[in-house]
Amino acid sequence: MKLTDILIIIINFAGALAVFLFAMKLMSEGLQKAAGSKMRAVLGKMTGRPLNGILTGMGVTTAIQSSSATTVMVVSFVNAGLLSLSGAVAVIMGANIGTTVTAWIITLLGLGEGSGYINLPLIIAAVSLVFMFTNQDKMRSVGQTIIGLALLLVGMSLLKAAMPDLNEYPSMLQGLASLSGYGFWSVLLFVFIGAVLTCLVQASAATMAITLLMLHNGWIGLDIAVALVMGENIGTTVTANIAAMVAGTAGKRAARAHLVFNVIGATLTLILFRPILSMVQAVFPDDAPMALSLFHTMFNVMNVSVQSWFIPQIVWIVTRMVPEKKEEAGEDDYRLTYISGGPVNTAELNLQSAKREIMLFSKQVLRMYAMLPELRTIRNQKEMDAVVTHIEHYERLTDRMDMELTKYLVAIGGGGISGHGSERISSMLRISDNLESIGDSILQIALTRKNKYADAVHFSDSQNAKLAEMSALVENALLVMDANLVDYDRADLDAANAAEHEVNACRDRLRAEHLEALKHGQYGYDVGNAYSSLYAQYEKLADFVINVSEAAVGENHHNNENNNSYFTQKFNQ
Predict the structure, then answer these.
(1) Which parts of the chain have pLDDT scores under 50?
(2) What does the alpha-carbon distance between residue 459 and residue 510 come to, in Å, rounded to a whole number?
(3) Are 397 and 335 in contact (CB under 8 A)?
(4) Helix%, strand%, coil% for the chain, nearest 5
């Protein structure tokens, strides 16, 4: 074989594979956008028996056609504390069954002689949906999914065309034959090859498609194809483990559980390799690709059926594989705790993690606000400096939290995401921005207290009592805000407005009393200036607090057009 022939084969094959991978991505993203919010809700609220988790994982993966997306999402949810480790193991098991649908789609639609005839009708249907329902986000997502399916079939056709005829290259045929001639050792070798190929391609669907084509063209026998499929199941776990590299201990354990489950499954199947192979051959004696698809489904169903009884033991294994870190970050140290990155675009399904990060942000602000009362009873400058320095440190943390959250939200918003997801991202950006502003306001109150102390300005008991009343009302508003961030769909905007109204009413009363006191010369300019600055700053802080609740429920002072402009402004920064 000439070098030019080899290069042409490689280029054609790489191009066909790129089309196939792009089609899988397009189809998966379309399905995620069509069902993203529902999938988040199902996984976020999933508790109970392992069977529920298995069915959930199977349903989600079947719906979005990406086991990698499901597993990366599960890692993220475990990391965010939204899913227990045992629940995650059950979902991962179900995802392994759900991913077998891809093989059936390829076998039934992509390998037949007439597979190319349905591509054009699919594309026409998809384009019709996009243009007929331009204002309906879900229908556009369905159209994208259909286009993805059509391109997937085009990619399969290109892959078939790119596959060389081995009869023209006997040396390649002899090489494959030699690798297949070592009995059970050949099976182990191809399990390893399948795992490595999937690690490199980062898409088990692609390696499954290649395996089906090699089997369809007679390059390899069914036994070697089955070995490759087992290896592919192991190799696909790399995606979740890469995503878990930046996750916490819980997220890493969930990713390891995926690896442990698939390795144990492959080991058990190797023990029963010949009987299982004979079984699928008996069902489809004259159709090797159908037999392989059947094996793929049987392999995962059998593994789940056996290992679902041992979920506690799998949890025990991964807990020892990833021990708890001895040095956990303290409350004063910030890092993205609940958001973990990964090579798979699961933005539509990972907004729950960003929401959990925002809840952590809110708790940080509440801890910061709780330091302010200490400043009213300071006994010396050293104590004052210590408390203000602590608040300044927290304020820097809020700046970093806002920056990291904004960077993450803008990144996922810049890709393909549904209209609902885009609106939620816009709301989260507003929430993060206002939480950071609350941190700024708390620092300003602390600095005003510090300057008052340095200037030896003393408030009367009446002024201190009124400021304490104002502080308590703002604290109540903060607690309402924090509760509203737990579930945006059930956020109590009436309670938030009521708390804001009480703060405004108190500010108006204090201002009126302050002006009256100045008229009668009850205190001097320095005292009056510090006093009015403090109650005004408390009221300003409360404005940012109500903005958070309004953003959470999507009812803010701006219309949707301005809200989108806000997102665009953030995206362009």
Answers:
(1) 114, 173, 327-333, 342-344, 555-568, 571-573
(2) 14
(3) no
(4) 80, 0, 20
Residue 457, by phi and psi: left (phi above 0), alpha (psi -120 to 50) or beta?
beta
Instruction: Tell me the chain's radius of gyration from C-alpha atoms.
Output: 30
Give the C-alpha separation, 306 to 180, whole Å: 30
pLDDT for residue 118? 54
**Residue 31 near residue 25 (C-beta atoms within 8 A):** no
Q: Rounded CA gap, 355 and 23, in Å?
A: 30
* Whether the Cβ atoms of residue 460 and residue 452 lie closer than 8 Å to each other: no
Per the structure block, which two tokens stand in for 67?
């086991």
Instruction: Give which of 41, 54, 65 is closest to 88, Cα–Cα.
Output: 54
Q: Which tokens sit at 221?
A: 């026998």
Q: Which residues contact residue 474 at a Cβ distance below 8 angstroms, ignoring those fewer than 6 apart?
A: 369, 503, 538, 541, 542, 545
Distance CA 144, CA 150 (A): 10
Calculated CA dihedral for residues 490, 370, 395, 482, nearest 10 degrees: 0
Are residues 216 and 288 in contact, defined by beta-carbon separation less than 8 angstroms? Answer: yes
CATH code for the structural domain at 350-572 = 1.20.58.220
Residue type, 506: C
Contact between 441 and 541 (Cβ < 8 Å): yes
Distance CA 61, CA 67 (A): 5
Answer yes or no: are the C-beta atoms of 17 and 205 closer than 8 Å: no
Map 485-552 to HEC letters.
CCCHHHCCHHHHHHHHHHHHHHHHHHHHHHHHHHHCCCCCHHHHHHHHHHHHHHHHHHHHHHHHHHHH
Provide the pLDDT for residue 416: 58
Task: Please state, in angstroms and rounded to a whole number, the distance separating the CA atoms of residues 347 and 32.
Answer: 9
- Closest Cα to residue 247, out of 76, 72, 43? 76
Q: Is the pTM of this model over 0.70?
A: no
The rounded distance, in Å, linking the Cα atoms of 299 and 276 is 9
The pair of structure tokens assigned to 212 is: 């089906």
Is 419 in a helix, a strand, or coil?
Answer: helix
> Strand locations in 82-160, DSSP E?
none
Task: Determine the Cα angle at 549 with ends 548 and 555, to 5°.
Answer: 105
Q: In whole angstroms, what is the distance from residue 146 CA to residue 123 CA?
A: 7
Q: Which of 364, 352, 421 is closest to 79 using CA atoms?
A: 352
Q: What confidence score (pLDDT) does residue 493 get?
A: 92
Q: How far apart are CA 51 and CA 260, in angstroms?
A: 19
Report how far residue 22's alpha carbon sits from residue 154's, in angstroms, rounded to the nearest whole number: 11
429-438 b/e (C-beta count within 10 Å ≥ 16 → b): bbbbbbbbbb
List of long-range contacts for 194-198, beta carbons under 8 Å, 24+ apart = 194/227, 194/228, 194/229, 194/230, 194/231, 194/232, 194/234, 194/235, 195/231, 195/232, 195/234, 195/235, 196/231, 196/235, 197/228, 197/231, 197/232, 197/235, 198/231, 198/232, 198/234, 198/235, 198/236, 198/238
CB atoms inside a 10 Å sphere around CB 17:
20
CA distance 316 to 419: 41
What one-letter code names the amino acid at 254?
A
Domain assignments of the chain as residue spans, ordered by start: 3-321, 350-572
